[in-house]
Amino acid sequence: MKAALHIVIGVLFGLLSAGLVLLLTSQPRGHAITLTAHPTPAGLVVYVSGAVQASGVYTMPYGSRVQDAIRAAGGARTEAYLASLNLAAPLRDGQHIFVPNTFATPTPTPDKTAFTYTPTPTQSPFINVNYATQEELESLPGIGAVLAKRIIAYRTRNGFFHSLQDLLKVYGIKPQTLQLIEPYVSFEIIP
User: Fold this and answer.
1) Residues 162 and 187: beta-carbon distance below 8 Å
2) 108-186 fold
3) Does this model's pTM top 0.85?
4) DSSP alpha helices (H): ranges in the chain?
C-alpha cells in the first residue's frame, strides 16, 4: 500500500512539475489591451455680443476669462465700455457676455442740505444698483416691488454693493435672478 501511495504522489508531483514548466515556457495568447482616453469636451460655449467686432457664439478652452472671449469675438470696438466688465472673471458654460457702448459717467452734484452726493441722470445702458430708485430696480427682469424695496433697505443698512454676487445677501434674490439682471446692472460707486 505504501508503494502505491508513493507512486500516486510521484505521478501527481510529475504532473504538477510538467504543468509548471509548460506554463512558464509557453507563449502568451491573445492580444494586449489598449487603453484609450475618453474624449474630452470641446470647452465652454459662450455668447459674446454688444460692442465687439463679431458678435456670436464661441467655444473657449476651460479656464478662459472674459477678456479671452472678447478677443475671440475680434476684440472690443472703440466705443466699448470695458470698465463695466470684470475682464478677469472666469467663463461659465452658456454665459452671455454683453459689452456695452460708452456712456457718460454720472457726475455727482453736491446736495446743499446734507453731506451726501446725488448722482445726475445718465444715458447709461445699465441701472446702477447702488443709486437706483425703486422704479428703476423694478424695471429689471425678475425684480418686483418687494425685491426692489429689499435691495434699497439692504443698501441703506449695509452700504453699497460691489458685485453681482453681493445681491445674493438680499433675502429673496436667487442665482437665477442674478442671471436675468446681469446684462443690465452696474455697481459703480460715486465718491
Assistant:
1) yes
2) DNA polymerase; domain 1 (1.10.150)
3) no
4) 2-25, 66-72, 134-138, 145-158, 175-181
